[in-house]
Write a structure and sequence with these properties.
Radius of gyration: 18 Å
Oligomer: single chain
Largest sheet: none
Order of helices and strands: HHHHHHHH
Structural class: mainly alpha
Distance between the termini: 33 Å
Number of strands: 0
Strand content: under 5%
Helix content: over 70%
């Protein structure tokens, strides 16, 4: 409960810093959120803020599994009967926070927009549905990719070092760049990918879906190795 409150507080403060950097009085609500959550092709503040939120939450969700390795893991695998059932159970367990993060980030950003004097609510020119799809669906998928990557690294090592190393790699791969990289499965939650509507949002979805599938398969291989060595 306490850790959840700390995460929520950090999320709210981060959203405030990001929205404040966009001069919200001069923008509509949707423009301010788009600019605040722009992603890797934006400012360093936009990159650091969103990267820390998404990768940080993914790390918090997966770090406990470093302490549940070996005997606990064997008992869990026996309980579920197979590696893939265990992995499905883990995904179900973290599904709520994964879905809640982009939603919470958008609610916090809206609150800060109003607190900072923003009062214009014109709908985005690309359409509301692709804009929301990029924010909520691709945002959740990006977090799921991070969770699976960090989970695989965590259960593949005997401590949290693997998860920290994987988080550092994800952070480095998402380092700001000038051109959008829809084939690189990091920082694809950025709202810059909503600018062309469905034409830019759906390729991101495809990349994240393929990456999720590939990472899940790798996680199953790691679990199989773990079964053989313990």
């Amino acid at each position: 409960m306490r850790s959840g409150a700390i995460v929520a507080g950090g999320l709210f403060l981060t959203a405030g810093a990001l929205v404040a950097s966009t001069e919200p009085k001069e923008l509509t609500l949707f423009e301010a959120i788009t600019a605040a959550l722009w992603g890797s092709t934006g400012t360093y503040l936009q990159f650091i803020g969103t990267a820390i939120v998404f990768i940080g939450v993914a790390y918090l969700l997966t770090a406990p599994y470093a302490e549940r390795r070996d005997t606990w893991m064997q008992l869990e695998l026996l309980r579920y009967g197979s590696n893939h059932r265990w992995l499905i159970a883990v995904v179900r367990r973290i599904a709520l926070p994964v879905a809640a993060l982009p939603l919470g980030l958008s609610v916090a950003s809206t609150a800060w927009y109003l607190l900072l004097g923003g009062r214009t609510f014109t709908l985005p020119t690309v359409g509301l549905m692709p804009w929301l799809f990029q924010l909520l669906v691709n945002g959740a998928l990006q977090l799921l990719v991070y969770v699976l990557v960090l989970l695989t690294a965590t259960i593949g090592t005997s401590n949290r070092v693997g998860g920290l190393a994987a988080a550092a790699v994800l952070l480095a791969l998402g380092f700001p760049h000038r051109q959008p990289q829809p084939l690189l499965p990091v920082q694809l939650s950025g709202m810059g990918y909503a600018l062309d509507g469905w034409r830019s949002a759906l390729p991101v979805t495809a990349t994240l879906f393929v990456t999720t599938t590939a990472t899940a398969l790798i996680a199953l291989l790691v679990l199989q190795r773990l079964r053989r060595t313990t």
